[in-house]
Amino acid sequence: MNEDSTGDGQAVPGSQWYDADAGPLVRPYAMTGGRTKPGPSNVRFDLIALVVVDDDPPGRAEESFLGPEHRALLTLCRAETQSVAELAADADLPVGVVRVLLGDLLEAGFVKVSRPVPPAQLPDERILREVIDGLRAL
Question: Do the beta carbons of residue 68 and residue 97 sit within 8 Å?
């Protein structure tokens, strides 16, 4: 029970912005320890970068030292490879918080991140059309 509610779930006067149905309220800066950038290496996580659990992650003992948000992201990554944007939506966390938490997980060796292919490295549209035309001719 918190100091802003009574035992019967009713809000105490003076706490109008917060009611018993709101659930736990943790500010994003509390989840990241006040950090706004992911890790000391300042890795940049694009919204479409894919996150997957590392093939050789640290043991369960090391995982027990992680915060609940870190563990929630790991659980989501174990289920399937997801983009940063999908993780933020599924974990119901702001993207900035997810980026910082993923930086922690990356530095600790729990996850791997694959960057999206830059548009300059994608095949030319003309080549793709020729391949499609060639396949249709078969």
Answer: no
